[in-house]
Amino acid sequence: MTVRTPTVSAPAPPGRMGSSVPATELLSFLGALGEWRDRRKAELDELDQAALHSPDADALSADVVLSMTVWKAVSDRYELILVTWDSGRVGPTETERISALIWGGLDAGGAGGSLAVSLPEACKLSDALAATLRAKLALDPGDADLAARLRELRAQVERISDLVKLEPANVRDQALAHHHDLDRRLTDLADRNKRGADIGGLIGPFEIDAARTERDLIVGAATRKERAADVARARTLRGELEAQGTAVRALADKAVATVTPAPRLAVPDVTALGPVPNTPSELEKYLTRLDAVRRALGQAQAAYGSALGKRDELSQLLDAYQVKAASVAKGNEDLAELYRRGRTVIEAEPVDLARLGALVAAYQAYLEGTK
Fold it and tell me: What superkingdom heads the lineage (predicted)?
């Protein structure tokens, strides 16, 4: 079976994160990206139809859904960039925003979860997924002969080489071995093709292996980036909670010393959780515990702050009623005595909130009765 829409490779992105990209480079990139988006959608639609009529339709459905999801994430980000681009009416601020939209994370998740990758990574992932689907369906690109397919595979193997360089030291040797094997096999395929040998039965499995390797490297790099971001987020949050905890403990000490009855809520110490772990499973648990500490600190801060606020509120009410009494019940000795008792309670520590509340209520009731 032949797919009429030829395969297409994503354009090279301009600039880097945090840099302002020249408008001329952005114009060229957006034009190429728009063409890539439209052609990839047409290609995926045809691949979807081919997969539906394939004997392995059920096995291929996950690959089709993931390919469509990644394409949709790219398309949505492309539309956001176009809005910011505003037909070229951009300055340095807008071009920096566009750079952030290109290099910042976007959700390219599938049914099995989500993965935050940059726009260029998502485009490469889409290329790899489309190549995998073509190979699994044993489809020939509509306008591509073997030589063209070999050229695309050579470009793919070079991209894999760049990705291997980003692998951490503990797995780089294994990734290098995979790349060397792919490079050797591709060189052999090219030599066979030059000699006129039939490589039709060999190129399909190679395309699957190359696409799978590139996809795994992209996903692995994105996963490590997410993990590093989680570690940084955990460290930042831990520092913030440590400072907040110190402040809330000081607030609690002040409330206990200043008012009675005072709340008796424990103020958690985030340092008791220990240092931030690096392993994914332990990091997830640690972030959950940090969130629990954050909520507990918020509750303690609200409770102790409310107790101190109640003291201030009652003190202000007493003073306000005294001002009112000066105009409607001037010289009333009973009100003067209630006010004196209220001020005595306020000036004592800890302030008896129940007694102060009763005195303020009595002052208010007496004042209302004098009208």
Answer: Bacteria
How long, in residues, is the chain?
371
Q: Which two tokens stand for residue 219?
A: 């996903």
Contacts of residue 207, defined as CB under 8 A and 6 or more positions apart, other chains included, come to: 131, 132, 134, 135, 149, 153
8 touches 43 (CB < 8 A): yes
- The full set of domain ranges for the chain reads 1-133, 232-292, 307-370
pLDDT at 109 over 60: no
DSSP assignment, residue 283? H
Q: Tokens representing 360? A: 């303020």
Q: How far is it, in rounded angstroms, from Cα 367 to Cα 180?
A: 93
Half-sphere exposure of 350 (CA within 13 A, CB side): 16
Residue pLDDT, tens place only, 337-356? 999 999 999 999 899 999 99
Q: Which residues pair with 174 in a beta bridge?
A: none
173-215 tens-digit pLDDT: 899 999 999 999 999 988 888 887 878 778 888 888 888 898 8
